[in-house]
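Please study the protein below:
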Amino acid sequence: MKKIFIKLYLLILFTLAAGVFITFAICFPLLEGIEKKDDLRIMQGVFGLVERDLENTPRSGWGERMEAMQTASGGLVSLLSLEAAAALDEEELSAVKSGKLLSIYEEDTFFKRLKNSGQVLRMKPGTHGSYWYTGEDERVTALTLHLIARELQRHEQVNPELAFKEIRPVFGFPTALLTTVPRFDDPEATHEFERRELWIDTDHEILWCRLPGTGYYLKLGPFRRAGPISCATPFTGSSDCL
């Protein structure tokens, strides 16, 4: 009887271990794949904004613009020659040369060749740094806000709202430009926004902030949803949304 019990106990342990292994083997690659896609969706928008900014800047002014971006983002973004990117393996370098956004997942580093040039943009947020909605690393957020504000300021004498509508397609998730201060039902959110003029709703993956140097406020997210955005959420009252 004792031997039967031991065998049954070992069988249960083996079954549990096998179940954990199978779950890990199936779920981990799946979750990793989702995380990679999430990173790319976020960084695609930031790279699109940088490209747009440089396209509207004479080549002679690229150095100055890159310095401003580095200052705004804590050194997140840099510009390399295509030759300097030769350290990438053959497949990765081919992707960069073709103009695709390349993600080196293990290093959380992204590369993208600027159109019709021998220059390559590189951003290295660090582990999970591209997840602006976690609030753990705000460099990607800072660069995004810097570039959106600059785009609006560039069209300040014409139509900033139209400028924002033109850059919305670079994002893979909803965005909205607000003309009034966001209002929150959560006192903690209200206090945080008043203190920093920025609040990240990590539960719903939404970022609210004031765009520096403009009279506008920005809403990024919810990250997991694509398509048109509504200003109405469980955390806000009515706001003028563009």
